[in-house]
Amino acid sequence: MANKSPDMRAAGPMGGPGRGGPHGPMIREKPKDTKGTLRRLMRYIGSSRGLFIALLVIMLFVTILSLAGPALQANAIDAITLKEGQLHIDFEALLTILGAMVAVYVLSSVLTYLQQIFTARLSQTTVLRLRSDLFARMERLPIRYLDNHPSGDLMSRMTNDVENVSNTISQSIASLLSSVLTVIGSLVIMLYYNPFLTLVSLVTLPLSMVVSVKMAGFMRKYFMRQQVLLGSLNGHIEERITGYQTVMAYGQEQDTIDEFAQISEQLRRTGIRAQIFGGMMGPMMNVIGNLGFLLIAGVGGAMALKGAITVGVIQAFLSYSKQFTRPINEIANLYASIQTAIAGAERVFTIMDEPSEPDAGTVELADVKGDIDFDHVVFAYKEGEPVLKDFDLRVKAGQKIAIVGATGAGKTTVVNLLTRFYDIQGGAIRLDGVDITDIRKDSLRKNIAIVLQDTVLFSDSIAANIRYGRPEATLEQCREAAATANADTFIERLPQGYETHLAESGANLSQGQRQLISIARAVLADPRVLILDEATSSVDTRTEMHIQQAMLALMQNRTSLIIAHRLSTIRDADIIVVLEGGRIAEAGNHETLLGQKGAYWRLYQNQFAGIAT
């Protein structure tokens, strides 16, 4: 399907500039610094102090036991000597050493098993907190952010990126901590045995560091790009599956497949490069490690011939040298997964760093009447492109106000501003004389109910969906609300009635039935201000009549704002407001506006008489 420019994207669900497609702003996302991300991850890991300390203690003992092994082996070798051409074995010392080695290896195995248990608990506890914080942040993001970011990418961060962090913690945290302890312990013991041979074993260390740093520069770029493309692919899949009927209706299946293949191919190429660079690190470090192994063996052999050290010490040095370089090699081999986790964590923290929806209001509403005042309101989704220009409207409590106009005139924007999904740039909006920016958002929205064109239902029972805005409501109250909304008849005919479980988005109900349930939800919420946003535009004429009857019952004694394309649905509105270019072109009742033969008359003629303007 042809890609759309940012200015051509469809409006978001609440009239915003629209959600980015699979090639949206996320691909331009820049990675953050590794150190900062690691520090934040360590704070999450450190939040489980008990588990973390227990793991450190266990790993300390495991490291001590692993370091004791080569020393015992050296003593065992040195218990076998050659004196005057005769082989001499100190059996008593050898048996004692061998017994100690058995005890060390058995205890090490037991502690390693415990280490895995504590690592798994630490990993899952850490990821639980990370995922919970991310979801909590998503639930408090401004509508503007959600309107401009693809939902598939947000889902990818919640699932794929957090899972990458989880896998890396469970697989790598023990290795990384053990590596640090092993490096320190090996270095101390090697210095104790022979400082000169220790210096020889460190000759290859600078080379290892240079190679690691250089390779990291290549790898980081590709692993970050891989995560971004994965989010892009998820966004494409989610968007096309959601809109599958539209894809089929317009015969765009092949174009959709081709676009999917294009993104997949980009991900494949990037993934190959990432895996190649990630896979190269281990072999390169192994070559450097083997070079150091040869140096120790050669220099140590020469020193042993001169009587400076024993054969057992050479063997111990070879083991400790391997233990000294092994952590570096392990980190190198784990670098691919570590980079993936860091890339994922960066993307998670990017969302968590987004500011929450601002709410400076302190006023708690009580006994709301429903007087609304739009006082010369100015608003733009994008700077320099105002949607509302000097919008001025007074609505008295209990009035039914219809807002009509061409697509893009700013009708739904009025709803977004009244509910404070977006904040105005000029003018003021007041509810019962109180500026809505001074009202707590939860208090403001508790007194406003919205019935949208695209009904939002959840995978739960019908009763749970009806009481969504009033969780404490009884089943009898749900039935009364459904009766008011003309929904009780079809609900009672369902096999499980109000306990019928709905499929995703209520897919096992018709569009009209879903709309009636959403009206019942609004009835039960008992708001003082009601917003009907194209509530009947997606149903047939007969269903529209049932919905209109339900809406008439719902609008009784409530201030109602009705946004409609079908002018037949708003003839009996107290005031009809015609928006053109972000301003009120006309306002009045149905007969008055028809008599003026202005903007409303032209809209009416287009719908019912087919006369061109």
Care to describe what's here?
By secondary structure, the protein is an alpha/beta fold. The chain has helices at residues 34-46, 49-78, 91-138, 143-147, 151-193, 195-201, 205-242, 244-249, 253-305, 311-352, 411-418, 441-446, 462-466, 475-484, 488-493, 511-525, 541-555, 590-596, 599-608; strands at residues 80-83, 86-89, 372-382, 385-395, 400-405, 426-431, 434-435, 448-452, 529-533, 559-563, 575-580, 583-588. It has a six-stranded mixed sheet with strand order 8-9-10-5-11-12, with helices on both faces. The protein has a four-stranded antiparallel sheet with strand order 4-3-6-7, with helices on one face. Helix 2 (49-78) runs antiparallel to helix 10 and helix 16 runs parallel beside helix 17 (541-555). The radius of gyration is 35 Å and the shape is elongated.
How do the helices and strands line up, and which of them pair or pack?
Elements: H1 34-46, H2 49-78, E1 80-83, E2 86-89, H3 91-138, H4 143-147, H5 151-193, H6 195-201, H7 205-242, H8 244-249, H9 253-305, H10 311-352, E3 372-382, E4 385-395, E5 400-405, H11 411-418, E6 426-431, E7 434-435, H12 441-446, E8 448-452, H13 462-466, H14 475-484, H15 488-493, H16 511-525, E9 529-533, H17 541-555, E10 559-563, E11 575-580, E12 583-588, H18 590-596, H19 599-608
Parallel strand pairs: 5-10, 5-11, 8-9, 9-10
Antiparallel strand pairs: 1-2, 3-4, 3-6, 6-7, 11-12
